[in-house]
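Work Package 3 (structural annotation) set out to generate three-dimensional models for the target panel prioritized at the project kickoff. During this period the team completed the workflow that converts sequence records into discrete structure tokens, so that structures can be stored uniformly alongside our sequence database. As a representative example, we reproduce one entry of 78 residues exactly as it appears in the project archive.
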Amino acid sequence: NQQYKEALEIAKEIIDYRNIKMIVANCYKEIGHDESAFKLCKEIANKKIEDSKKEKRFNEVEQLLRTTEDKFKNDLEI
């Protein structure tokens, strides 16, 4: 239990990283702070959803640009 508390203190200093947050959540769980563990897991899940939406939007814009570029090239050839 003491090792988890020590790991938790160290990890708090670099909590911005997703994998570190997961380690912190596991530490919280191990020392009986289930609510804190749940909060961090929820934050990680929400960030993954947000990142997924951003990636999807980026891919849509990239595809639109490629389509526009192809159309422009075809128009130049005509």
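The CA atoms of residues 30 and 77 lie 66 Å apart.
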